[in-house]
Amino acid sequence: MERTLAIIKPDAVAAGVIGEVIRRIEGEGLTVAAMRLARLSERETEGFYYVHRQRPFFGSLVKFMTSGPCVLLVLRGTDAVVRWRNLMGSTDPSKAEPGTLRSLFGTNIERNAVHGSDSEDSASFEVNYFFKGTEIVG
Ligand code: CMP
To answer: Does the structure show a pLDDT above 80 at 138?
Structure first.
């Protein structure tokens, strides 16, 4: 069993597809182990995306992620990290496989609807960044 962090980003929340994203998560056989609607602060977002701090898109990414509420989730299941990434599709929605969440709901490489941890190590960091152990069920 693995855990991974998922974020339904402000663009997808504004588009009214929270339910659809969760339906796809559950349809894939992944379990929601924790969930919270949050309006991220700049500081929280900068800490979360720390590894990208030198990238040219960092400032714009922080602005986007703090522009409205998002949904933070911990997903649990066998190979949860890679299965959630497969469901999301490629970072750039124009390159994402048809039917994936980013292909369906993403607008461009920044406004790409959903986030997922890219490895077991980053999943551990990201889950703990947003959730206390007592908030994670199962
Ligand atoms: P995410 O999977 O949340 O991880 C980092 C985020 O940075 C990514 O999704 C996009 O929202 C954003 N991002 C990645 N690459 C670029 C890029 N080349 N230009 C703009 N934003 C990007």
So the answer is: no
